[in-house]
Design goal:
Elements lengths: L5 E5 L4 E3 L4 H4 L10 E2 L14 E5 L2 H15 L5 E7 L2 E6 L5
Length: 98
Amino acid sequence: MNAGITLTLYTYERILAEQTNADSDRLLPYEDPTPESMGDLEQFVGKLAFQKCIMIASEQRIAEVRDQIAERLGDGKRTSLTVAIAGMLEVSKHVLKL
């Protein structure tokens, strides 16, 4: 992703990134799959099911873009934004609790 932000897309089995770098390496300590360098991620839109994406950058950069991203996603009924770890903005689908 441009603008100093690394975009990672999570399927149920893989983590995809345009390219792996120091930002995507921040995910390595967690018990998730190792991020894979895949080139342009747009090629997967509509072809793979994603459970979430995580945008990784400096805390300052995430703070700068969070409102813009929230606006683009709409009313928040279908997705949520979370910063559970500084410098990582997670976009995920809402989970219905019955």
